[in-house]
Input
Amino acid sequence: MVEKKGVFICIEGLDGSGKTTQAKILAQKLKETINVLYTSEPSKGLIGNYIRKSYLYSKKRLSPFVEALLFAADRIEHLESEIIPALNEGTTVICDRYVFSSLAYQGASGTSLDWIQTINNAILYPDLAIFIDVEPEKSMCRLNSKKSLMENLETQIKVRKIYLKFVEDSQLTIINGNNSKTKVSEDLFSIIKKYLN
Ligand code: TYD
Output
C-alpha cells in the first residue's frame, strides 16, 4: 500500500555516464534539508544480488526475456522492501537506475518494449526520471577493465537510442553529461529543486 509522502526520483544513463557519482552528490546535497534514501538497481536484495554476483560479470548473457524478468522481479522486491516504506515515511528516494534501464538495455537486445512495460505493470512510477546523456564512445572510455556483459560500444549505442526515445516522449528529462562534473551536478540539482519547490 502506497501512502507516498516522499518524492521518487530515478537517475538513468549509460554505463560510464557518471550517473552513480551524480546521484550520490545529489543525495548528499538534498540531505542538508530533507530526508533522502539513495538506492540502486540491481538492488541489494536476494534477486539483485544474484544478478550482480552470479550473472552480470559471467561469460554469456541470458535470454533477454529471462534478463527482463529477473530485473522486473528485483524491482518489485526493491519497491516492497525499501522504496515504498521510505516514501511512506516522507523520505525522498533517489534510485540509481529503474524501469528505464530495463526498457533500454533489454529493449536493446531485441525484447519488445511493450512486453517489458507489461511485466513492469505493477511498479510505482517515479515522479521524476532523469537521463544523464553522454556519447557512447565517451562512456566506454570512462569504464575500467571490469566491464559487465552489457558494456560494449554496440550495445551502448542501441541503449542510448532507446533512452532518447523516452526523452522525446517527455518521460525522461535529459541532462548533458558531457559537461564537467560540477556543471552536471548543478544542472541536476536545479531540475530537482524546481520540482521540489
Ligand atoms: P550499473 O549501474 O552498472 O551497476 P554497478 O555499476 O553498481 O554494477 O548496472 C549494472 C548493469 O545492469 C548495467 O550494465 C545495466 C544493467 N541493467 C539492465 O540491463 N536492466 C535493468 O533493468 C537494470 C536495472 C540494469
